[in-house]
Amino acid sequence: MVKYPEPLQKLIAILRKLPGVGKKTAERYAFQMISWSQADLQDLSSLLSNLKKDILECETCGALISETPCNYCDSKKRNSSSLCIVSSAKDIFSIESTGIYNGFYHVVSGLLSPLDDFGPEKLDFNKLKRRIENSSIKEIILAFDSTIEGDATALFLKREIESEGIITSRLALGMPLGSTLDYVDEGTLSQALLARLPI
Hints:
CATH class of the largest domain: Alpha Beta
Shape: elongated
Number of helices: 7
Distance between the termini: 57 Å
Oligomer: single chain
Helix content: 25-40%
């Protein structure tokens, strides 16, 4: 059995933590990085060591930002009557890329999944409810993956929000069953936003 030098083994082990990266791919990446210049490696090292410090999470909406105040929470630039709820901060970038939506966002911390021990208490619904009560929101868009977990989360939030008397809709046309927002192209996502349906 081939035994790589210990630093290389550690690098391969770290790279394997990335989604979709298996042993062979991690090895290929690691050997490629060995060929980089010292300056490129130092740039990568500096970027990684400061990543958590340089990327902030908006305390209001949960978006990933590099400076405050948050552009996604600016009522002068955005439609404050609409709130789009997503399960991940990454989904905000997908929706923004369509150029269709210009309202506020709110990131819940995932999708309901009993098998993964992710129940309603982990959605931090109280924070969302306070935000709705203290705003002039007239429509809520539930922009979740078209999966069993996405459907369960949408139905749960719909029931919880009903008492507020706010129109609630969900992404529609063009979202194939089982799809995640990560893999839906801008055109399809634009159609899904425009054709959203009440739930």
